[in-house]
Amino acid sequence: MSTKNHIQTLENESIFIMREVAAQFDKPVLLFSGGKDSITLAHLAKKAFYPAKIPFTFMHIDTGHNFQETIDFRDELIAELGVDLIVRYVQDSIDQNKVKEETGKYASRNSLQTVTLLDAIEEFGFDACLGGARRDEEKSRAKERIFSVRDDFGQWDAKKQRPELFQILNGKINFGENVRAFPISNWTEEDVWTYILQENLKLPSIYFAHQRKLVKRDGSFLAYSDYLNIVDTDEIVEDVVRFRTVGDMTCTAALISDADTVEKVLNENKASKHSERGARIDDQRSESALEQRKKGGYF
Amino acid sequence: MIKGVNLLWNNVKKEDIFKMDLLRISTAGSVDDGKSTLIGRLLYDTNALTKEQEQLIEKKTAEKGLKDLDFSVITDGLIAEREQGITIDVAHIYFSTRSRKFIIADSPGHVEYTRNMVTGASNAEVSIILIDARKGLLEQSYRHYFISQLLRLGTVVFCINKMDLVDYSEDTFLQIAADVKKMVDSYEFSKPNIEIIPISSLKGDNVVNTSENTPWYQGATLNDILHSISPSNKGDRAFRMDVQQVLHVQNEEFTDFRGFSGRISSGNIKIGDTLTVLPSGKSSTVKEIRQYENVLEEAHAGDSVIISLNDEVDASRGSLLVKPEEQPEASKSLDATLVWLNEDAAHLGGRYIIQAGSRQNQVKLQQIHYLTPPENPELKLESSKLELNDIAKVELRLAQAVFLDNYRENKANGTFILIDPQTNNTCAVGFVGS
């Protein structure tokens, strides 16, 4: 008999889900942000179909407030994988007056992404969007299905979710609906880092300790950038930091850290006991910030 | 109190991480039976909570002016749930110790109890059933055990909770334990591994730490039991693999590659084995078993692989790969236990889509033999329809023959779902022959 470790078990499950998406949908797309979760997805996609090519187009919903390191990394990886990348910009949604830029100290484009995403889904007629969301991230994510059916407004209705049993995935949808598919639902942040270690995956440099100019605000450190509305109470400092998530620059907090390898990051995360979403300023707006955004069609 | 040695993360080496395995647990029950407290206690005492969660627990405990920690915030997920003080849907909770990663599928009680528990427990290997020491076995405990049995879970752990409220009485514990054994013996099915533990989630007795309040209990803590269970081995069953996709590749390196991708649901396979493709019935031998760039000698249940055969036989999504000497019977009529999961009732003669693995087919609800109330399975109730949470023995008629196993012999190839063709919703789960 064979014994599998937890990472192998998770990988086998995720590859199964990827293949179900490829088989059950006509026009699936893989949402790719250049962060570690979508890098993991991309790697799983490569493994799931090899020697065939990855059967998904990739799409990035660009807030325009990215770390340059992530964008450079994204373009390198896309070239290496040989897949097509679509980029749709939140700036365009703003210019078309579909969304309004937030103002003030905490202005962020993170929640504006929803409109750009829904428009892109409609524009290309995607019937399934693969995403790197994980159930351990947040309380409302813990109740998410692997195949999550959304109506044509992209809305998530927690009370009307389809039961998912055994390994049977029901991807049948009505016209206009689409499915958000989450192959790494059952992975934790620790599992992702462990997988990165095992598979020797490359990541954008900002995940590891580096010297950076920072804005100290409310006890957190944000990367100094032109996108941030700096106010009098903010303090500009410099330190050695790393990022645990790589979202919009205006709402992703840095950790003071000298962890410069995957192994060190793993150990430091475990020892610190702080959650990953603790570093997402926009999720701290209220206890249900993410759930509210999801109901509106957010990833 | 001594913390288990497997809980400390410090100085974990790379080799250790890759030795961890995965165990899936199901918990179920309503909010007031202490389930959230049990999960919270398990995570708290295994040091698996984040700082934010610990702070939230301390804050809520202080706000409510409680003496003991209030763990309910860990499992209350959605806005509506917090407002109404109930849980709506199956939540997934993750934690790991040094040697094992755990996934808890936590199902709420209330109206959709059966539906949620079947859903949450479908992938689990262990079921934890909580019993209030003051109340003993309730209707819900019978239902809970029945579903664990229906799903053929390998281990059922009965936690006799709130022992602090019965002065840690050994007599009370023994009486309930005797009732549990009686219930277990009264079922005709094969017996799972049964564990019975006296605990107090609120005080932390025998959850992770051995209690000084129950010197008469010599058994293991819940945490120890969860570490001692071996994840199930489906390797000794007949080989079954649903074809997910056929992959064709022609390039410089792979001049003419044709392989069937799938996840082996049970059994093993090695190079040279003869495989039969169902429904066509054509056979060939295994030429290559591939996982990404690795070419394997053999593969096992749970592996996602791509299999190439020596002859060009017709197979596509919806085909099942088996070994010729262990073929499941083909049948256009299926006796099964159904659990109805949909708010729209099923009526005799109703038409649905059956999905088993990647296979889909048209099906008709031909006959409802009887309903089985899970809290009293001896009763066989007549009915002409199936409503939400009903469990029934039925006969299904299929448009084409389907190759399924009896659920008792092969769980992986003995289950299916029914899809309502009008709404596309998953409306039932079925267990062949059970």
UniProtKB/TrEMBL annotation, chain A:
It comes from the Bacteria. SUPFAM superfamilies: Adenine nucleotide alpha hydrolases-like (SSF52402). Its EC number is 2.7.7.4. InterPro entries: PAPS_reduct_dom, Rossmann-like_a/b/a_fold, SO4_adenylTrfase_ssu, Sulfate_adenylyltrnsfr_sub2. Residues 268-299 are annotated as: Disordered. Residues 28-253 form the Phosphoadenosine phosphosulphate reductase domain. Belongs to the PAPS reductase family. CysD subfamily. The keyword Chloroplast does not apply. Coiled coil: none annotated. It is an enzyme of class 2 (transferase). GO terms for molecular function: ATP binding; sulfate adenylyltransferase (ATP) activity. Keywords: ATP-binding, Nucleotide-binding, Nucleotidyltransferase, Transferase. This is Sulfate adenylyltransferase subunit 2. GO terms for biological process: sulfate assimilation. It comes from Leptobacterium flavescens.
